[in-house]
Specification:
Strand content: under 5%
Radius of gyration: 25 Å
Distance between the termini: 68 Å
Largest sheet: none
Number of strands: 0
Structural class: mainly alpha
Number of domains: 2
Length: 187
């Protein structure tokens, strides 16, 4: 009887954790994704407002339209859907239409001056990084690796911070003594 209660309690805890991850955490990450894409789109608009790119440029319009589509359909995005889209794109999509679109977009970008091209490419890069981050953070398969990786980076940053403090705290002459002793030991 006691072991059944333990199993039921564990199942309830696992269910609660999955619900937190699947409902609340994914909603948070979706809001964060949309925020980053909105910010990329707003930065592009501000660049156009400053005159760094013309509102009438075809690349500007196409990029804004893609960013708007990313914002609008972000809720259907998921790792497995993205993988399936990549794998089966050749079978489900109109390849000629895709090639025409990317050729047209490439020509529109090439027609821009360098400073304008950088603004468009920066906006798209920010959106792509936000999408990749969303996919990694919301995948039940990748989330543990992302979580552990982030903590490892934070720990490494703390360790390097302590090393920086230690280097400043140890006088130069003491460092030379330690280095000389290390040299003697190594010889």
């Amino acid at each position: 009887m006691n072991s059944i209660l333990v199993v039921v309690a564990n199942l309830l805890v696992i269910g609660a954790l999955l619900w937190l991850f699947d409902v609340l955490y994914r909603a948070y990450r979706l809001d964060l994704l949309r925020f980053h894409i909105f910010r990329a789109r707003d930065d592009l608009f501000l660049a156009a407002e400053r005159g760094e790119i013309a509102f009438e440029d075809r690349a500007y319009g196409m990029t804004r339209q893609m960013l708007n589509g990313m914002i609008r359909y972000a809720h259907v995005l998921g790792l497995w859907r993205a993988v399936a889209l990549i794998l089966f794109q050749r079978r489900t999509a109109d390849i000629k239409e895709l090639e025409r679109f990317w050729a047209s977009y490439g020509e529109a970008i090439k027609a821009l001056p360098l400073h304008s091209r950088k603004q468009v490419m920066r906006a798209m890069a920010e959106a792509h990084v936000a999408i990749l981050s969303y996919l990694c953070h919301t995948s039940l398969l990748l989330f543990p690796f992302v979580f552990v990786g982030k903590w490892m980076i934070r720990l490494a940053s703390r360790v390097s911070g302590f090393a920086r403090i230690a280097r400043k705290a140890i006088p130069a002459q003491a460092k030379q003594i330690f280095d000389h002793q290390a040299y003697e030991i190594g010889a």
